[in-house]
Amino acid sequence: MNVIETEQLTKRFGTFTAVDHISFSVGEGEIFGFLGANGAGKTTAMRMLCGLSTPTSGSGKVAGFDIYKETELIKRHIGYMSQKFSLYGDLKVWENIRLYGGIYGLPEKRLKEKTDELLRVLDLEHERNTLVDALPLGWKQKLSFSVAVIHEPRIVFLDEPTGGVDPVTRRQFWELIYQAAQRGITVFVTTHYMDEAEYCNRVSIMVDGKIEALDSPAALKKTFKADNMNDVFRALARNAKRGE
């Protein structure tokens, strides 16, 4: 069953086409990588899927809801984590968890249980009363992801979630992604780190607003006779430049 479907989805800003007639689908429980260089159109496409930006043309459904007419229903069924994280630095760790749980509509009893559970799972019980601004970047990142899925959404959208963190923390973050997928949450993740494509079930690679390739990492490496995803991306960029 597909939880994301798009057909010829397009977004223009004046004469500039940021997303250029993209069509794809994402299955339930899939880890779907949306890859490309900075400025390729990844974030713009994600914003349309999250109901935060109206497409110029094309069609799409997220969790069964229309991206034009049912944006509020989409927002209730997804989680979202931005590049800059969405935590309040002047609130304590436990206050952030309760705030977002409340926003997502968790009842009081469940909210208290979830707060204690997350603090334990993230090994942040000793930091319960610490202001978020005082946490190391990696801890902020993991906390931000955890509050994005606190309500067990059907889909979580992650926009460049591992930017600026060290390789060890990046791997730890991907462990959280795998755990979410095992619970049936579909993960839609944008990144410009090509090595992270290896962690996805399938990846879409955007170049200048267009999807130039979409398949499993293993299939893409075979198609482009490449040893790694960086080589795949470089080959796609060359082909796009030549207009192939």
From TrEMBL:
<dbReference type="InterPro" id="IPR003439">
    <property type="entry name" value="ABC_transporter-like_ATP-bd"/>
</dbReference>
<dbReference type="GO" id="GO:0016887">
    <property type="term" value="F:ATP hydrolysis activity"/>
</dbReference>
<keyword id="KW-0547">Nucleotide-binding</keyword>
<protein>
    <submittedName>
        <fullName>ABC transporter ATP-binding protein</fullName>
    </submittedName>
</protein>
<dbReference type="InterPro" id="IPR027417">
    <property type="entry name" value="P-loop_NTPase"/>
</dbReference>
<dbReference type="InterPro" id="IPR003593">
    <property type="entry name" value="AAA+_ATPase"/>
</dbReference>
<keyword id="KW-0067">ATP-binding</keyword>
<dbReference type="Pfam" id="PF00005">
    <property type="entry name" value="ABC_tran"/>
</dbReference>
<feature type="domain" description="ABC transporter">
    <location>
        <begin position="4"/>
        <end position="233"/>
    </location>
</feature>
<dbReference type="GO" id="GO:0005524">
    <property type="term" value="F:ATP binding"/>
</dbReference>
